[in-house]
Amino acid sequence: MIWVITLGLGVVIGVLLGLLGGGGSILAVPALVYGAGLGIEQAIPISLIVVGVASAVGALPKLRARQIEWRLAAVFTAAGIPATFAGSAVGRLIPESALLIGFAVVMVAAGTRMLIDRGDTGTACSTEGSGINWRRCAPRAIPAGLAVGFLTGLFGVGGGFLIIPALVLMLGIEMSVAVGTSLVIIVANSAAGLLSHLSGTSIDWAITAAFAGTAIAGSLIAGHLGTRADTDRLQRWFAYLVFAVAAYILVDTVFLR
């Protein structure tokens, strides 16, 4: 039964990555820790593999539709990759219980962000043509890239719940382009995070393959659904699920361990 729930969450992660450009990856580590019974030090690299692969699959339709802003993705990635290694180094110094509590706090922040996000765009960075006003955008994009990279290394999350608001609300990028750009950034940060976690960590490849397979299936489902899904309602209900999982992590870590 636990395995069914774990693999089911893999589908959910893939669907949400494909539809929303992020968010679903916040469930990967809890699913592996509480569903598959792994320690968090094993769950983080597996989560990064699953999230990275599912994001790459989800980005393919956006690539074909030319809905990726490659230069912004490069800025986020250039800032995020060094921060990813820093987050991984910090994570090795923190006890597992403290990491889980911190992860729950991040989940609450992510769920709150999903509930208050109404899809409005902020100050646009684009010029009258198709270019980007880098003098206006870079000071906003670089700190966001650093924060996303650090969280990726520390907790094994893709960071889409931060990337999407940064692209849409802070930089004024259209939602469809923000989703595709977010997926590319997640792939790059996940790869860097995986490299930073490989030393001294064993990976259960059977669990990884099964979890990644269901997440890829979810991404393909999301690609098929496209714009027919009510993404606002999906995001709202997913936020409630994130709150419930965060509450479970806190209760289990603080009172039951």
UniProtKB/TrEMBL annotation:
InterPro entries: TM_pro_TauE-like, TSUP/Inactive_protease-like. It is a multi-pass membrane protein. It comes from the Bacteria. Pfam families: TauE. Keywords: Cell membrane, Membrane, Transmembrane, Transmembrane helix. It is found in: Cell membrane; Membrane. The chain crosses the membrane at residues 7-36, 42-60, 72-91, 97-116, 144-171, 177-198, 205-225, 237-256. Its main location: membrane. PANTHER family: MEMBRANE TRANSPORTER PROTEIN MJ0441-RELATED, MEMBRANE TRANSPORTER PROTEIN YJNA-RELATED. Belongs to the 4-toluene sulfonate uptake permease (TSUP) (TC 2.A.102) family. This is Probable membrane transporter protein. It comes from Rhodococcus zopfii.
